[in-house]
Amino acid sequence: MTATLVRERPTNVTDAAGTRPLPAGDVRPTSAALLTFTRRALWKSGAIGLFLLLWEFGPIYLADETTRVFMPPLHEVLAAGASLLANGQLQEHLAASLTRSITGFTVAVASAISLGLLVAWYRALDSFLTPLLELFRNTAALALLPVFILLLGIGELSKISIVAFAAFFPVLLNTIAGVRTVDPLLIRAARSLGLSNFRLFQKVILPSAVPTIFTGIRMAGTSSILVLIAAEMVGAKAGLGYLIVNAQSSFLIPDMYAGILTVSLLGLTVNFLLVGLEQHFSRWRTAVGAQSL
């Protein structure tokens, strides 16, 4: 007897249109997926693109010569920024602002989280400090800027202090809210396992309160930059706020807008970094959610 060998053909996979067979295992991005990604990217960046186009062509075609002097088109602003970058002025002012904001922001976050944990945990301390905290929380930071300058001078200490004051209360209030919204069942379970107060804060309370705390940290990051720019406009010899007000008083309008654009990009970068930090410290939530599926 002769055995007949039948060679099986490899299974073919048709593409999205169903017209061309693709070999099995050949994975290629379909045109539909690429088109969907492109549409989403264009939609998300569409508003910014329209704003930049309006900024570029609006002063040229929609405004008169007088208005164009005070609102130059985008390419002139970018050219001024490139000139500031080339001669080192932009780096100098940016470094001064970053040093002040990072120092004040770090002091505010460390002190606000520590105090927030204590206030949220000890009711007696909460009732004692809340009236004073509410008084200062409802006082605008910029309203106290003359006080900081009178007491601490026009040097670095007054600017760092006003940044720390502005960033302190968003972190404090969100830390208190985050601790108080921790599931009581988790705390009871940790107590039943014999965890000390320190281990309870480390293993249960802080991880559960991280999303709320980081909401306050992101708000504080924005506040620290805005308040610092305003403080630098009043009394400083370096910084982005000084760059903006000095360019305005010297009638260097493109330089002024370049400084404002730098502040916007700085705020966007700070927010992006804080979101990444939040995701890093909240990885356990994603892991738990994935395991429960």
From TrEMBL:
The keyword Transferase does not apply. It is a multi-pass membrane protein. It is found in: Cell membrane. Residues 1-10 have a biased composition (Basic and acidic residues). SUPFAM superfamilies: MetI-like. GO terms for cellular component: plasma membrane. Keywords: Cell membrane, Membrane, Transmembrane, Transmembrane helix, Transport. Pfam families: BPD_transp_1 (PF00528). PROSITE patterns: ABC_TM1. Belongs to the binding-protein-dependent transport system permease family. This is ABC transporter permease. It comes from Cryobacterium luteum.
